[in-house]
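Lab notebook, bench 4. The sequencing result for the construct came back, and we need a structural model before the next group meeting so we can plan mutations. Quick request posted to the team channel:

Model the 3D structure of this chain.
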Amino acid sequence: QVQLVESEGGLVQAGGSLGLSCAASGSIRNIDAMGWYRQADGKQRELVAIIRSDGSTNYADSVKGRCTISRDNAMNMGYLQMNSLKPEDTAVYYCNFLGRAWSLRYFDVWGQGTRVTVSS
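Done. Here's the predicted structure in token form:
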């Protein structure tokens, strides 16, 4: 079974920066895509950023230019670097890995979620 563990978020002042990491463990053959999602109070979960196996990325319009998603496939790690944070970025952030286990079964797993609070 593939499992994800996220780093701790925290409290950041507006304009500040914060990096999140996500470590995957288990019987991982390959990772096809890694994404970060967030859910603010009273809102739906939304995609923040995703990186695919070919290295292509997509970012939500709300974070474009302020966030960078990256990965280290050899270490089964994913990262999200957030800069110029705004109060609107306050949410619980979740990482998501899509890939294939050594059993050849595809997996879609989520981290436990970590809270990021941006104060003004």
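DSSP finds no helices and eleven strands in the chain.
Will bring this to the meeting.
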